[in-house]
């Protein structure tokens, strides 16, 4: 009998598609609630910063960027959008599913495993990032901000950037009892990264200490990778380093999230 039960035990990861379908259905019902933050706001940001401020930057007597400002800032905003989307998908949705509406508990009550639940949520996050990045890249192309066909590879780079932030943040969110920690997360981590990780100006223009701190953030690696691709100047060595660093953040975050979820869901 024990052998028969073991033979019918679901393989870890086999139920990912079922849990993933739940998140997709939930997103279809609440799509309009995130349309502005995911699609409209990044495009307006690009237009205001890239074209508005960019006209002043480009009119300088000695432009230091080497490219029009809109072409410089577009891949930065693309990576930052991926970061913000990943964080948004792994803060309140994770806490809601863990504590308030307890969807995670309902999933675990079925043959789904903790790994199924985790991978499904990360897959859903990757889908959200891909949609937001795809719409943004289309708008940026229409504005002439991505002059190279290499920019298409910025889409998987954006997805990896989003996961590099979503996975560690999910580990943080899964262990929270209240949402007060999210205020500190957005104010002390997300917003400074958005402003000082090379999105709007080169990180080497920062003071020495802050410059090294910027290089340590996953967002800077996502911005630099996306920018190299969008400008058609990818370097194989740098690209491998960026991908490996982002993948490390995603992998470590996923391991930590799985441990935290298992501790809270299986106790």
From TrEMBL:
<feature type="transmembrane region" description="Helical">
    <location>
        <begin position="239"/>
        <end position="257"/>
    </location>
</feature>
<keyword id="KW-1133">Transmembrane helix</keyword>
<dbReference type="InterPro" id="IPR000412">
    <property type="entry name" value="ABC_2_transport"/>
</dbReference>
<keyword id="KW-0813">Transport</keyword>
<keyword id="KW-0812">Transmembrane</keyword>
<dbReference type="InterPro" id="IPR051784">
    <property type="entry name" value="Nod_factor_ABC_transporter"/>
</dbReference>
<feature type="transmembrane region" description="Helical">
    <location>
        <begin position="152"/>
        <end position="172"/>
    </location>
</feature>
<dbReference type="InterPro" id="IPR013525">
    <property type="entry name" value="ABC2_TM"/>
</dbReference>
<feature type="transmembrane region" description="Helical">
    <location>
        <begin position="65"/>
        <end position="84"/>
    </location>
</feature>
<feature type="transmembrane region" description="Helical">
    <location>
        <begin position="31"/>
        <end position="53"/>
    </location>
</feature>
<dbReference type="Pfam" id="PF01061">
    <property type="entry name" value="ABC2_membrane"/>
</dbReference>
<keyword id="KW-1003">Cell membrane</keyword>
<comment type="similarity">
    <text>Belongs to the ABC-2 integral membrane protein family.</text>
</comment>
<dbReference type="InterPro" id="IPR047817">
    <property type="entry name" value="ABC2_TM_bact-type"/>
</dbReference>
<keyword id="KW-0472">Membrane</keyword>
<protein>
    <recommendedName>
        <fullName>Transport permease protein</fullName>
    </recommendedName>
</protein>
<keyword id="KW-0046">Antibiotic resistance</keyword>
<feature type="transmembrane region" description="Helical">
    <location>
        <begin position="184"/>
        <end position="203"/>
    </location>
</feature>
<feature type="domain" description="ABC transmembrane type-2">
    <location>
        <begin position="33"/>
        <end position="264"/>
    </location>
</feature>
């Amino acid at each position: 009998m024990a052998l028969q039960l073991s033979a019918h035990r679901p393989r870890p990861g086999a139920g990912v598609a079922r849990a993933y379908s739940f998140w997709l259905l939930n997103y279809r019902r609440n799509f309009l609630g995130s349309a502005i933050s995911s699609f409209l706001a990044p495009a307006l940001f690009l237009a205001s910063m890239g074209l508005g401020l960019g006209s002043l930057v480009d009119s300088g007597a000695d432009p230091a960027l080497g490219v029009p400002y809109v072409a410089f800032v577009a891949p930065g905003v693309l990576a930052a959008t991926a970061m913000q989307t990943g964080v948004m998908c792994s803060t309140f949705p994770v806490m809601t599913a863990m504590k308030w509406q307890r969807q995670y508990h309902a999933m675990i009550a079925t043959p789904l495993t903790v790994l199924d639940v985790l991978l499904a949520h990360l897959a859903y996050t990757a889908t959200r990032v891909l949609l937001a990045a795809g719409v943004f890249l289309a708008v940026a192309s229409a504005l002439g901000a991505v002059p190279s066909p290499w920019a298409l590879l910025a889409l998987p780079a954006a997805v990896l950037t989003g996961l590099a932030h979503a996975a560690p943040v999910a580990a943080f969110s899964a262990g929270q009892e209240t949402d007060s920690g999210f205020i500190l997360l957005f104010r002390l981590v997300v917003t400074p990264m958005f402003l000082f990780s090379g999105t709007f100006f080169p990180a080497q223009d920062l003071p020495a200490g802050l410059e090294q701190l910027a290089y340590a953030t996953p967002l800077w690696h996502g911005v630099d990778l996306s920018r190299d691709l969008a400008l058609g100047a990818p370097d194989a060595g740098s690209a491998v380093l960026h991908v490996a660093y982002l993948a490390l953040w995603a992998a470590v975050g996923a391991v930590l999230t799985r441990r935290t979820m298992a501790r809270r869901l299986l106790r």
